[in-house]
Amino acid sequence: MSTEIISGQSARIRTNELREGTFRANPDYEFALLDQLSAEEQQPLSALRGDANFYGLIRPRLATGLTTKAASREIAELFRILQEPGPLPQFILSELDSELTIRRLVLDGILQLAQGSEWICGPAVCDEDALTPTEEGARLLARLSLQAINHAASIVSAGATELSDRLYRYNTVPLTPQWLRRIPDGPALEQYLQIQVGGRCRRILDKDWTRVSPQSKRKAEQTAEPNPWLSWDSRTVPAQKPDSVGYKLYLSPLATHLREAFRVSIPAITAAGAHHFKIGSNVRGVLRPDKMVAYFPDRSALEEAAHRIAKELSGCPAQGVPFTTELDAGALLSWASDPPMEADVPAWLQKQSWRQWICYRLGSALAVAKREKSPAMPAWRFALERVRLEGVDVSTWIPTSTSWQSEPAAVVVSRLGHI
Description:
Helix content is 35%, strand content 15%.
């Protein structure tokens, strides 16, 4: 049989199929230990060497644009065993979360399920009767999020990394010569926001906030890349613990109204108890939808700040941040909850923002679906069904569980798209 994935009729992986079904490792993937990679391939993965949960990589055999996965020893062993088709081994079935693990692996195309004479995975194993949200009757940001997924699904010959990036950047305002003249550099942005020495907003900030230096921020994030944010820490509210769930408020006015929105928001987030906030550090940051973000220890404090801001900015034109949850002020204000530190993934992937987390998973799912010549369901719909398995309400973009369990089977290694 060809190594190409064959699409069958849409079906669910039922509990009895886990015990009685025949599975195989998808021949389009291969397993590799870190030491089996070339020196060039190993270089960006050096941080994985000291991670006790990392055993090797499950990667596409060819440059198909699919996502490389970092696998534990147990999943690597499962992948090895299923090189020969057969039932799932008992050591997998005995795990409490085995059903969720196998569903994820089959939907991601790592494993395939026998159905008659065919091997199916991806969209072919989804429940075609599952309720899928539509734009009709949805709130503004829910519609915007669906439009983003449809847009990414329409892109020809794009791999998981590019699709994820497109989703993340969706609804960014194009950079024009007018905006480049208006904000050509960092000092011009400070003038625009009135945060330069002696500026109107600088006096408000210096009273309650401490600016975070770009050097310390880059060091904390272990990157040499230019910092895309200007950020501040509260002088009175303690920082969030790394292993706790935090809440973030997005303020998304059109760039032409950012100065006023920024001025109004600082007293509001200060009074409500934000511990940190950031704003784009250059003209491109001003034009992105998630241009300003404030961080809170709990949902009630976030909602208090949003209420204060909405009252002051009534009628302010909004841009809107896809994959965030709309508040009563429409697309101008929205919120999300970042995953806490994930103990079972490599240290350099342990902290991701909500939008990074969701866009990488949506992009990977779209890449799987777009490979099928006769898909059982549209790629955009499959992407929604896939992120449901991660505990996301795709009609509101709210996590349905605050436990934020990381993928037990395989973790999306989002920075490895070129491998």
